[in-house]
Amino acid sequence: MSLQFDHETLGQRVLFGSGEAAQNLAAEISRLDAKNVMVVAGDFELPMARQVAADIDVKVWHSNVVMHVPIETAEEARSVAKENDIDVVVCVGGGSTTGLAKAIAMTTALPIIAVPTTYAGSEATNVWGLTEAARKTTGVDNKVLPVTVIYDSALTMSLPVEMSVASGLNGLAHCIDSLWGPKADPINAAMAAEGIRALSAGLPKIVADAQDVDGRDEALYGAYLAAVSFASAGSGLHHKICHVLGGTFNLPHAQTHATVLPYVLAFNAPYAPQAEQRAAAAFGSATALEGLQQLRAQVGAPQRLSDYGFTAAGIPEAVEIILEKVPANNPRTVTEENLTALLTTALNGDDPATLN
Ligand code: NAD
User: Fold this and answer.
1) Any residues with CB less than 8 A from the CB of 205 and at least 6 apart, and which?
2) Bridge-partner residues for 89, per DSSP?
3) Nearest-angstrom CA–CA distance, 74 and 142
């Protein structure tokens, strides 16, 4: 087998340990010799952030976190960082909170220590997102990649099961989409496959018992691998679709990913045999779709886009915008007709197998 690829590995320190976040954060603050620390955490995440920061001096707490990072909140947080002569930003929370810390780093180049509490995976990517005049823009900049990620599954115990499932399937979508993303390569695929294995092992344990440490650890570990493979492979068809559904139709991020994933998998799989086999093996099932559908049934995954406010009236506009963004190397040619069928099937929660 001849191999030829161009892979970039992003440099980041990862500290993983259940119940260890406070200790690991104090050690990192000392290693970075940080004096003026800003902690970013949404109102709901603030109590967790106070626990995590129990052993460090915090100069300023900042909790004005809004999903999809409106530019006004980014500018406010940047001013707070400047006024307080901040030298490190610590973010404790989900992807929205990490996103605000990234917005600060974009213009200040301040280092971020990320302490994620969902499976969104933003902490392991160099991708930023901002919303200005109701339009979400994203970009890639190594300045926004957190220097350190501190994973502590104890902080995820409070994530409701339903949100854990949606967020974990968002992680799984990173894995699957990276198998055919624009810069898919064997290194990404190795991480994505292990991510699929870990997430599909962890999520059923969380559903059975939300406090299961092993399940929570596996899901967090899988979410990290998912994000690393995704950051390297780039956005594939699945992410292009979900980005439009989230950005233009304001659908919730994790639930949208969780719902759309089987449809994109069914759509692309027959045209991407290597990716399909890799995912099937990682699920331990005969086909990738069978593995995903078994897992979805086991964890009670979100079923249809109509449950999240999407309607048939939005399909033509969504199709038009998505068609402009489809990656050139998507395994299957995407047309107005087959994309309309994909979105209609996902809207109604019909059997994805009808797409292949
Ligand atoms: P979120 O950060 O909006 O969190 C969802 C809800 O869960 C919030 O109300 C939050 O307060 C709550 N929550 C978080 N942790 C909790 C916990 N441990 N216990 C109880 N509740 C908790 O949602 P998300 O899915 O984590 O992130 C979505 C955002 O992240 C989107 O804006 C998305 O675009 C972005 N994102 C960016 C990247 C990237 O690489 N840049 C990757 C993935 C997601």
Assistant:
1) 212, 214, 215, 218
2) 38, 112
3) 18
Report pLDDT for 221. 98
Residues with CB under 6 A from ligand 1: 42, 44-45, 67-68, 93-97, 99, 117-118, 120-122, 125, 127, 129, 155-156, 158-159, 163, 167, 253-254
Mean local confidence (pLDDT), 145-155: 98
| DSSP-derived 3-state class of residue 332 | coil
- Helix (H) or strand (E) segment spanning residue 253: helix 253-268
- Residue 304: which of 353, 260, 245 has the closest Cα? 260
Residue nearest to atom 34 of ligand 1 (CA): 68
Given a cut of 70, whether residue 94 has pLDDT beyond it is yes
DSSP conformational letter for 180: S
The pTM (predicted TM-score) of the whole model is 0.96
Class of domain 13-156: alpha beta
pLDDT in tens, 179-226: 999 999 999 999 999 999 999 999 999 999 999 999 999 999 999 999
- Angstrom distance (rounded) from CA 145 to CA 106: 10
What CA–CA distance (Å, rounded) separates 127 from 306? Answer: 29
Distance 125 CA to ligand 1 centre (A): 14
Which tokens is 147 given? Answer: 């220097």
At residue 1, the pLDDT reads 65
| Probe residue for ligand 1, chosen from 96, 245, 255, 256 as the CB with the greatest number of ligand atoms within 8 Å | 96
At the second CATH level, the architecture of 162-355 is: Up-down Bundle (1.20)
Domain ranges of the chain: 13-156, 162-355
Distance between Cα 3 and ligand 1 center (Å) = 37
